[in-house]
């Protein structure tokens, strides 16, 4: 009987068209929920280290920081500006660098000058709050010895020099 049934031509056309309701389903909330599950959170604020000994020259500073969480970080944004005692210090030039590591050496700075640094971490989800600000200072320029004013005798010597720095120097070390 099966063989006979399969030999027959069957007309599968429907006599009436089905009446389906055209419905638009809003899945934006579900999409948002799914994206939030797969998304990584924005990182926490990094912690900037205080200036380390021997981390400065007359024209450069090495700044270090850390991230004390398991956050995913793509890069860091290091900002700095010279510290000024003037009232309009906010108007001074602020510099921003993108850095992959947790340290950076900044060059072309002024000797014996204080700089304020802060850092933020970035990933695909956004930017962290900035770290606390840390003040670093470059080393003073070497003084210039005034050769015409040098005097000496058997038991003493008088050596005069002048600083080439704009800011006052705390002390000098004279080596013989």
TrEMBL record:
SMART domains: FN3. Residues 46-142 form the Fibronectin type-III domain. SUPFAM superfamilies: Fibronectin type III (SSF49265). It comes from the Eukaryota. It holds the Pfam family fn3. This is FSD2 protein. It comes from Hylia prasina. The gene is Fsd2.
